[in-house]
Amino acid sequence: MVRETLRDAWDWFASLPHRYHGLIIGIAVWIVWMIVGFWRMVLLAVLMALFYGLGRLWEQEGSFAGIAERLLTLLANRRRPRDGM
Predict the structure, then answer these.
(1) What percentage of the chain has pLDDT greater than the value 70?
(2) Which of 29, 30, 53, 85 has the fewest CB atoms within 10 Å, counting from its CB?
């Protein structure tokens, strides 16, 4: 019975869009840090926004490799010297 309930909960969680996975992970990380005592309430909004954005990128790219490639491309283009400056 407990196993079926856990399976149903996991299926529900897996069916959510990835942006909500990121949001839930952000909240979980925030709770851990609040228990430890290092963070303030403002950090909740920052972590939620960060992981929500990560979840949206994950949905768009389809994998973490796609996210890493996209971020590395942005960093490489940013460091490239521009003509005419």
Answers:
(1) 84
(2) 85
Q: How many CA atoms lie within 13 A of 3 on its CB side?
A: 0
Torsion angles phi and psi, residue 38, rounded to 5: -95, -20
Domain ranges of the chain: 17-79
3-state DSSP helix/strand/coil % of the chain, to nearest 5 = 80, 0, 20
Q: What is the pLDDT of residues 58-68, one digit of tens each?
A: 787 777 777 77
**46-54 long-range contacts, CB within 8 A, separation 24+:** 48/23, 50/26, 51/22, 51/23, 51/24, 51/25, 51/26, 52/19, 52/22, 52/23, 52/26, 53/22, 54/22
Residue in 61, 71, 64, 75 with CA at minimum distance from that of residue 25: 64
Which pTM value belongs to this model?
0.42
